[in-house]
Amino acid sequence: MSMPKRTLLKVIVLGDSGVGKTSLMNQYVYKKFSQQYKSTIGADFVTKEVEIDGKHVTLQIWDTAGQERFQSLGAAFYRGADCCILVYDVNIPKSFETLQNWHDEFLNQVDVDGGNSRVVSEKTAREWCASRENSMPYFETSAKEGYNVDDAFLCIAKTAILNQHEQDIYCQGIQESISEIEQTGRCAC
What we know:
By secondary structure, the chain is α/β, with parallel strands linked by helices. The chain has seven helices and four strands; from the N terminus they run βαββαβααααα. Strands 2-3-1-4 form a four-stranded mixed beta sheet, with helices on both faces. Strand 2 and strand 3 form a beta hairpin. It is globular.
C-alpha cells in the first residue's frame, strides 16, 4: 500500500513589526497566545498538516520580520511562496496603510503575472481587499482569542491549491501522523 501524496504549500505572513504576525501563526499552529512581545529577527517557519478537500497538505508557514532592516533578506524568504497573509493592527493606521507595499513586494518577489480604539474600519479593509485584482478574501482575526485564525489559514491554503499550475510538490514517504505512532505505541525512530 503506497503512502498518500502530500502537497507542500509555502505561506508567508507579512506586515509591519508588532502587528501580531507571530501571535497569529502560533495561535494557528499551536493554539497558544502569549502577551509577551519578542521581535522576530529575519524569519522563522513552522509546519502544519491539514486535510483540504480530501488532499493531505503540509503548510510551511513563514513568519517574517516587519522591520525595514530585514527587508533585504526578503528575496530568499519569498522564493517558492504559494501565497501570503497580510497582517495589520486595527489600532495602528500606519500598519494598514503599508499593506499595499507588503502586497506589491510579495508580488514582485515571487514574480507573479471590533474594538473601541479601532482606527482602521472593517469596511475600509474589506473595500481594499475587494479592489485587488481577483479580489482578496478578508478575515478579521484575533490571535489572542483564537478568533477566525483557522478559517483564514484554511482559506489561503484552499486558494493556493486552486491556483497551482500542475506544479504540485509532493512529499512521498512522510509518516501519516503522530497519532499513528501513539496508537501503536511504537517509536518511529
